[in-house]
Amino acid sequence: MIDILMTVYNGEQYVVPQIESILNQTDSNWKLFIQDDCSTDRTVELIEPYVRRYPERITLLRNEKNSGSAQKNFFSMLPLVEHSYCMFCDHDDVWKPRKVEMTVRRMMELEQANGQDTPLLVHTDLAVADENLKVLSDSMFRSQNLNRKGNRLNNLLVQNNVTGCTMMVNKALVDMVGPTPKHAVMHDWWMALIAACFGKIGFVRQATILYRQHRANEVGAKNARSLSYNARRLAEREQARKVLNDTYLQAREFEERYHALLKPEDLELLQVYQNLPYFGKLRRIAVLFRYHLFKHGLARILGQLLFV
Q: Which residues are in the Glycosyltransferase 2-like domain (predicted)?
């Protein structure tokens, strides 16, 4: 059985097609938990008929206070997970019919090789679509120039390639998360770090969702190969430095929480990375080269060397 966690906030325009896409999955061995984050539109009104129609399969929960972010909302839902696997769902995407089936199959392969007590994570590619679901790119990994093999700790400290709305984790990984981390950049990034240090990460090359781009979505896909996008990023110096600082804080909290469980080489890497801001410029660059702490793609690496 799979527990699917969906967070929703003011999703009246998109939530119904998403729920329908889950109901239309070829693998129906799931339960859906929907947590509304104090919506002020008709979101709850639109969800309630599904809860009445499928009381054993769909549960609606309502926050008393707005959590402030999808990340915190997802972390707060993890105690609901009782079954072997957990998937994460944004309210504004659409799942392709075989998403659950294909992701479970890859998870089964990982479990057979590593055991069900090993923290495991599976993620997939995405098709990027506009707000009307017209496909803009059939592969977000290609359009964003992401490295599907970038699943080691040195890769994931500096760049996350796991998109939460494609992610499945097993119960062993859920149980390692613990209280909501204060400095986790996103829930998917934190879980990817856990899998990189203590388990395994698997990937499904096929796009399993239509990842809807619109003005209101919190995290969007950008064309990382475009010159205009990269020029704009280089111009946003303060934002670039803030993003870097967030990764240092995340590394520090991760190391503090899992210190006793970490392999010596991972502990060293986390300690060196979190202390980068206290080194001089030349030493920071030397550390990047020594530990291979580079993002994927020339433009991103040049940005790192400029802002580190």
A: 4-114
Residue 221 lies in a domain: no
Looking at residue 238, its pLDDT comes to 79
Q: Across the chain, where does the E strand assignment appear? A: 2-8, 30-36, 58-62, 85-90, 94-95, 120-129, 135-137, 168-170, 200-212
Contact 119/176 with Cβ under 8 angstroms?
A: yes
| Cross-strand bridge partners of residue 90 | 7
Q: What's residue 102's pLDDT? A: 99
DSSP 3-state assignment of 60? strand
* CATH number of the CATH domain containing 24: 3.90.550.10
> Could you tell me if 208 and 233 lie in one domain?
no
User: Taking the model in full, what pTM does it have?
Assistant: 0.92
Q: Taking the chain, what is the end-to-end CA distance rounded to the nearest angstrom?
A: 44
36: exposed, middle or buried (Cβ count in 10 Å: 0-12, 13-18, 19+): buried
H helix intervals, 5-125: 15-23, 43-53, 70-77, 99-114
d(CA 206, CA 203): 9
Overall residue count recorded for the chain in this entry: 308
